[in-house]
Each structure stands twice: as structure tokens, then as C-alpha cells.
């Protein structure tokens, strides 16, 4: 009988402990979710230090005050990159309207094939699509770091770091990233999006950002 009672008591204690841990874990998970959603956006993007298509070192700070529309690709890309850059060019032209200052958008192409994409070749490549395009590149490690910050998948074969090889393809995610004038991630657009839908979404996001800014100033003045 004593053994039965001890077993029952032990079972009750363990049950109580497991319930406590379950509630504690749920509360901790909820707290982290609230912290992670305090700005309502995932942690994508961040500072970078690269070289532009004119050979000048640039960082993300140089683009403050402008929306950034980023695309990762490479000049040897046979079809996808040209298609996406043509789409980006249409978006840039479509945003040159009274409701949106076209000069407040910086369309940026970041090479994920720094071995073959020289500063000169990137400059020639991007201007085949639009004169406002800005090309960025860097070392292999710099590009890997930026890609990680933007949660971009890209896989370059060993040939991409072998000085004697030049015939290879680079597999990478296909997205446009929209970054705010303050350097914050606002959204991304996949390959299935059309130039028209991307333009519409950028205008909507910019309008929401503008409204939030006005409301923030109003609250601060109260």
C-alpha cells in the first residue's frame, strides 16, 4: 500500500512539474514571438560594405533616404537574371510618376558570382537594362555574408572559387527585396510577380510608410 501511495504521489508531482514546464515554455515562446513581431517584420537585411560598378567602395549608409530594390544575380546567368532585370527596369520606369519620386528609389544588382563579375563587366551589364541601375560586388566572403543577411539561397560550385575554371552556373533564389529609406526590410517579390504587381505593391508599401510616419509625428507633437 505504501508503495502504491508513493507511486501516486510521485506521479502527481511529475504531472504537476510537466504542466508547469509546459506553461513556462508556452509563456516563453509567446514572449519571444511578441519581441520578434514588435516591428511586424522578419529579421532580413542589414549593413553591407561592397564596391559599386564604378569601383567605389559603398555601404548601406550611402543609400539612406532612398528605397532600395535589390536583386541578387550574375552576369553569366543565361535567362532568369535578364528576365528579372527587364522586369526591374519596367518597375523603375513605372515608379517615375507624381505619386512616387523616382529618384527616391535605388535599383541595385548585387553579384553572387564575384569571381567572374568584374566591376567593369557589371557596369556594362546593368546598363544594358537601365541607366539608373547600380551594380555591387565584393569578395566571395563579403557576398556570402550579405546573402546570409538577406536569407538568400545561392550555391556556387567549387569551380566558382577555382582560378582555373570559368564554365559554371550559380544557383540562387529569385527575389526583389524592398528596403526602406531607413534601411529596414519592407518585403520581397518573387519570380511569379509581374512588373505591374511589384509596382503596385511598392506604391502601397510606400504609402503605408508615409502614413505611419505622419501619424508618428502627430503622436510626438501631442
Question: What descriptors fit this protein?
Answer:
seven-stranded mixed beta sheet; two-stranded antiparallel ribbon; about 45% helix
Rounded to an integer in angstroms, the radius of gyration calculated over CA atoms is 24 Å
What is the ordering of alpha helices and beta strands?
A: HEEEHEHEHEEEEH
What would you call the shape?
globular
Q: List low-confidence stretches.
A: 6-10, 29-39
Residues in helices, as a percent range: 40-55%
Question: Please, how many helices?
Answer: 5
Largest sheet: 7 strands, mixed
Report the strand count: 9
Find the structural class using helix and strand composition: alpha+beta
Could you tell me the mean pLDDT?
Answer: 80
Major β-sheet strand ordering? 2-1-5-4-3-8-9
Assembly state (oligomeric) = single chain
- Our estimate of the beta-strand percent is 15-25%
Taking the alpha carbons of the first and last residues, their distance comes to 72 Å
Amino acid at each position: 500500500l505504501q508503495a502504491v501511495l508513493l507511486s501516486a504521489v510521485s506521479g502527481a508531482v511529475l504531472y504537476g512539474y510537466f504542466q508547469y514546464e509546459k506553461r513556462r515554455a508556452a509563456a516563453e515562446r509567446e514572449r519571444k514571438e511578441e519581441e520578434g513581431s514588435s516591428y511586424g517584420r522578419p529579421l532580413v537585411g542589414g549593413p553591407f560594405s561592397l564596391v559599386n560598378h564604378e569601383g567605389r567602395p559603398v555601404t548601406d549608409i550611402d543609400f539612406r533616404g532612398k528605397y532600395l530594390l535589390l536583386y541578387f544575380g550574375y552576369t553569366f546567368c543565361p535567362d532568369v537574371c535578364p528576365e528579372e532585370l527587364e522586369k526591374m527596369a519596367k518597375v523603375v520606369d513605372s515608379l517615375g510618376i507624381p505619386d512616387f519620386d523616382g529618384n527616391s528609389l535605388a535599383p541595385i544588382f548585387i553579384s553572387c558570382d564575384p569571381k567572374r563579375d568584374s566591376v567593369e563587366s557589371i557596369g556594362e551589364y546593368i546598363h544594358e537594362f537601365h541607366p539608373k541601375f547600380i551594380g555591387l560586388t565584393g569578395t566571395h566572403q563579403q557576398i556570402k555574408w550579405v546573402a546570409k543577411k538577406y536569407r538568400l539561397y545561392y550555391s556556387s560550385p567549387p569551380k566558382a572559387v577555382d582560378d582555373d575554371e570559368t564554365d559554371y552556373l550559380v544557383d540562387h533564389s529569385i527575389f526583389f527585396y524592398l528596403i526602406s529609406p531607413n534601411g529596414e526590410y519592407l518585403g520581397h517579390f518573387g519570380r511569379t510577380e509581374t512588373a505591374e504587381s511589384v509596382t503596385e505593391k511598392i506604391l502601397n508599401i510606400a504609402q503605408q510608410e508615409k502614413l505611419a510616419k505622419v501619424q508618428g509625428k502627430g503622436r510626438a507633437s501631442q
